[in-house]
Every structure is written in C-alpha cells, then in structure tokens.
Design goal:
globular, three-stranded antiparallel sheet, 3 strands, alpha+beta
Length: 66
C-alpha cells in the first residue's frame, strides 16, 4: 500500500531543499528506492515536500536516511 509523507520546513528555502535532495536522492536524478513520487515547492511560511513511497517501511527508511 502506498505511503505518503509530507515534510514542512518553516522558513525553509529552495537552496536548503536542493541541498537535502542532493544528500538523499541518487545523483542521476532518479528517486530513492521505494519512492514513487516526489514534489516540493515554496509554501506560505517555508518549503513543503511531498513524497509517496511504495510502502510504509520504505517511507520510514527514507526518513531515517535524511
């Protein structure tokens, strides 16, 4: 079953987001193992990231890597 994760970073910036993606996503621009969707962008008071994983285990593993 798909598992969604929403991260909200108050006062987060595009530069901080790009640095975090560079640290956890593969260098070839693909998604990490188990992640099937990823979207991010500015929100009213920071930066919001939405990720969908193929399972809760995959989502939990992703959070532990970040």
């Amino acid at each position: 079953m798909a598992y969604g994760v929403v991260h909200h970073f108050e006062d987060g910036t595009k530069e901080q987001y790009e640095a975090s993606v560079a640290a956890v996503h593969p260098n070839d621009g693909s998604l990490p193992d188990g992640q099937v969707f990823h979207a991010a962008g500015p929100s009213a008071d920071g930066w919001t990231i939405i990720a969908v994983h193929d399972s809760q285990q995959s989502g939990s593993n992703s959070v532990m890597r970040s």
